[in-house]
């Protein structure tokens, strides 16, 4: 049985500079209702031959995954667990358009393949020649949290020694409009894209960013249950999904104001993989020893040794993830 | 026929998303699969869709594709003889 679960690397492609932590000191300020991610040079990760059949989401998933694996010194993870709200929505959109235009005839196989949600996880498995546990969760804004919870359970059961957990969502102009209409993106929020991969290892001997202490997901919890979770998962800082929209932000009022709160959505925008960005940002903060001022509304860095990530989806689904700094850092 | 071959090459490049390939890079007699362009079975499906959509040719026996997609010249010749649009 493991003593602890270490987060040994975490990589992102988002509306901030990709595959680096430049956002901590020199962030890109999001503007507009819909902002696309800033892509790295994909040629480092895929050959032109492979690239021609991959949409943006898949290229980003490969870029973040291969970078995280390289930094973590693991080639073939025991488990690849992925969350995605919509999967490769751009190819799905093209496929559906063709379905209507061609009268359900002569559909392109590549677009069909990419319209399935588990394409990213399987692509990473094929690319890294990993034949272990491979799973995909599509639970809207709780997709990453569900993938992480699965990894957590697999570790606890002793079935895996390491895991690559990620969340990947792209967005098209048409679907960003749907996201707004459906209430997933609210007034004042920027609809965005994100791809995040994190590498976890039990009792790692490598330099780690922080440790994963606890993961919980609750559906329609009572106030008593929420209080109980907060008393059991105490942290120096709460990293929440507050976005600047009053309706969304009110969902986090149950946290009170005893613990400093920071938020990542104003900097990274809103999408179904937002909570993965929160996880990544919290891990980077613990590695640095403080939450950077940019996640604190510019009010200065917040020193911390532990962060509780709180994600509330639709006022019904709650996830709590407790991360702690490595002892003796 | 030359015009037809150029058009076909452009269609292959577009449908298979061969970003860095120009029509001149494709040898008319080079094999499309394996060596040459190095296409695979999913590309074969894309080419079957291309022939039906652009030339009205419906391949009843997909196994025939192996012969038809031997090279651009062979493919163009087959299209020329069997096209319905």
Protein architecture, described:
The complex is a heterodimer of chains A (329) and B (85). Chain A is an alpha/beta fold. Chain A has two domains: 5-202, 3-Layer(aba) Sandwich (Peroxisomal Thiolase, Chain A, domain 1); 210-328, Thiolase/Chalcone synthase (Peroxisomal Thiolase, Chain A, domain 1), CATH 3.40.47.10. Chain A has eleven helices and twelve strands. In chain A, a hairpin with a 3-residue loop joins strand 11 and strand 12. In chain A, helix 2 (56-72) crosses helix 5. Chain B has 85 residues and is mainly alpha-helical. Chain B has one domain: Non-ribosomal Peptide Synthetase Peptidyl Carrier Protein, Chain A (Orthogonal Bundle). The chains are: A alpha/beta (329), B mainly alpha (85).
The global form of chain A is globular
Number of strands of chain B: 0
Helix amount of chain B: 40-55%
Q: How would you spell out the order of helices and strands of chain B?
A: HHHH
Specify the oligomeric state. heterodimer
Summarize the structure.
The complex is a heterodimer of chains A (329) and B (85). Chain A has 329 residues and is an alpha/beta fold. Helix content of chain A is 32%, strand content 22%.
Helix and strand layout, with pairings?
The complex is a heterodimer of chains A (329) and B (85).
Chain A: E1 5-13, H1 48-51, H2 56-72, E2 79-83, H3 89-101, H4 109-114, H5 119-128, E3 133-137, H6 143-156, E4 162-169, H7 173-181, E5 194-202, E6 210-219, H8 223-232, E7 237-240, H9 246-249, E8 261-263, H10 265-268, H11 274-288, E9 290-291, E10 302-303, E11 306-313, E12 317-324
Parallel strand pairs in A: 2-3, 2-4, 7-8, 7-11
Antiparallel strand pairs in A: 1-5, 1-6, 4-5, 6-12, 9-10, 11-12
Chain B: H1 2-15, H2 41-55, H3 65-68, H4 72-82
Helix pairs in contact in B: 1-4
